[in-house]
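Q: Here's a chain of 270 amino acids. Please give me its 3D structure as tokens.
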Amino acid sequence: MTAVLQHKDSANGTTLYMALELSNKKWKLGFSNGEKNRLTTIAAGDWIDLHKQMDLAKQKLRLPEDCRIVSCYDAGRDGFWIHRGLEAEGIENHVVDSSSIEVNRRKRRAKTDKVDVKALLRLLQRYWHGDREAMKQVNQLRQLKGVGCQSSWILVMEFFSWRDFYNQRQLGACTSLTPTPYASGDSEREQGISKAGNRQVRSLMIELSWLWLRYQPDSTLTQWFQQRFAGGGKRMRRIGIVAMARKLLIALWRYVKEGMVPEGAVFKVV
């Protein structure tokens, strides 16, 4: 991966990668040139010190003063004022949904600002490394009838490109489009979806599912929905569209990852 990053940097000018882990009193900063990392801490909101640390990182990582800077931080308590400030100064910034940050959920893990900023830095570099391939995926999704430019962009840039998914279970869990059953003694019931994942992608997939039903009436997914839920009332259709959203997300992921066109789907006429 480092070799690819170096090749990309040599073609487009060297790049300084910067990740910010924000808290009430301190900001943890992570810098990288694609090979070496540098970590430091500044007082929260100290914009002057932030610029000093960026200049120092260029020196320590042996990057030119006019090198390109790309950054990211977790969308949390500080909102978008940092994003607007960085963009106004010519720094290409990406605001990350915390649910898109990849962690090992089967093991105990350390939770520190240092660990978090390193994770953000890895994500930023991986995203930047796959920038061209991500654009191919956006154009690929746009070819499907019922999937628009904005939907394709959000799915790829805010979800598929920000972490690696290895199976459909991980995919559904990251958007919380998977059911959460409750079982205790003789009591068993379905509690619906947990709503703990990426809210933006979850809402988008619900909207895309309704559009899919309209523009892809002959697809296998639409026929499945019509057979199971169309004949029920409003509640059944609401339940059905969530299940449809989960299946559609998996189908679109397989399409961009493996080239498997959703069964029965048609493309836009150019």
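Q: Can you summarize the key feature?
A: Residues 234-258 form the longest helix (25 residues).
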